[in-house]
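Preliminary data (for renewal application), flavin-adenine dinucleotide complex.
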Amino acid sequence: MTVREETTDVAIVGAGNIGLAVAYYLVVRHGVTNVTLVDSGDPMAMTSAQSGENYRNWWPHPTMTAYTDHAIDLLEEIAEASGNRIHMNRRGYALVTRRERPEDLIAELYKGYGDGGTGQIRIHEGGSAAIYHPPISADWKTAPDSVDVIVDRNLIRSHFPSLAPDVATIFHIRRAGDISGQQLGQYMLEAVRNAGGRIKRAAVESIDAGSTFALNLRTTEGQTKLRADRLVNAAGPFFSKVANMLGEDLPLSYIYQQKIAFEDREGAIPRDLPFTIDLDGQELAWTEEEREVLACDPDAALLLRQLPGGVHRRPEGSPDGRWIKLGWAYNTTPGDPEGEPPLDPNYPDVVLRGASRLHPGLRAYLGRLPRGTRHYGGYYAMTPENWPLIGPMRTPGAFMAGALSGFGTMAATATGAVCAAWMTGAELPAYASTLSLDRYADAVLMAELHESASKGVL
Ligand SMILES: Cc1cc2nc3c(=O)[nH]c(=O)nc-3n(C[C@H](O)[C@H](O)[C@H](O)COP(=O)(O)OP(=O)(O)OC[C@H]3O[C@@H](n4cnc5c(N)ncnc54)[C@H](O)[C@@H]3O)c2cc1C
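Predicted structure:
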């Protein structure tokens, strides 16, 4: 039996936010239009459909700050060109702690913003001259820039009245907010299709690499082959699996993270609240009976220990809507994306208890989350240092864009633009080589990243 064969210049495995962004920048920036996206499911239906859709330029290292600043520049370009079809807003991230003037966190902030740090950070303390502008407007064009560090409890109380009274410091990151990742994907897909690009529903089962690539595909009509001059691995949680098809190993693990969304009928979360993160770790309060039940389950026993900081919340949708989202990426155990999604039935209760510490109004939902509450999750594809891998693979003609962890919606644009630039030999931003496999040859950088306490995981 002969296997049907098709050809293309570029085959991209994966049509999530990342594969679509690579195709988009190949088409719009470099005129490479004979592009085929291959996906076994619908576009944007896997990890990209689970995203919290938040963005920020706040990171522990200036390389990640430069990368996400670039991504946000490109998001703003698309928002401008499309009449803000991607629903970009900018209320910022409010990072909250009960610690008085935490000098270590302030130092980390300066480090993360690198050379530009000094001009970026405004400290607000009793009697300081700096004026704090609350997030009155969510408009990304008029919202303030830089970072406000509020160490004045009166200022905190007057602008963030919904927070628990023990909050002592807020870092308000201003170049941050949320977008619609689905609209971004749709916008990019339309541009790719209009330029002649294609999307093919098929599972890539294996790849033969020679002077060109032969992708062996399983479709509903049976086995077919797609020949391509160049290949892009944008397979999200199957990034390592596709690399293995080329005989390559990548240093990734896949960690399942979850979220809940529900209708906040009690109004516990103000509609103009920035994306707000509790930086402090905590031990949850359980009754004796609950402790006994949790202690019997090896997977749940960790909930009895001190949990890390990072529990977050934000209003979802329009100012007159009522939905909110809560999340907490406390899981650190790698899983297997081939298996059933390991949704933890304890998670909604755990995230609610954790988030109630900062927003006591959320306690109203303990044990009685509204009907219709959504509980969902997906895999963070992560390198140990939590930086992405974008650029050439070891196999000539093969490229990759993955390991996007919990930042692939916000960083899709820069990831696509940089991968497309590597593929076409165009000029690369200064940070690009550090986000490729090249960084593993830089022992000094890798030691620094290895030792860094914060990896920017949220
Ligand atoms: C709970 C959660 C919250 C998040 N919150 C945020 C956030 O607030 N902000 C943010 O920026 N990011 C967030 N992220 C991260 C973001 O969602 C991901 O980084 C991003 O969606 C990854 O996109 P992707 O295209 O790499 O992967 P995916 O969207 O998973 O796409 C990969 C595609 O490859 C296809 N594929 C894989 N293997 C094959 C094969 N062999 N053959 C054919 N097709 C194949 C799959 O079908 C899939 O469609 C979050 C993630 C999770 C899980």
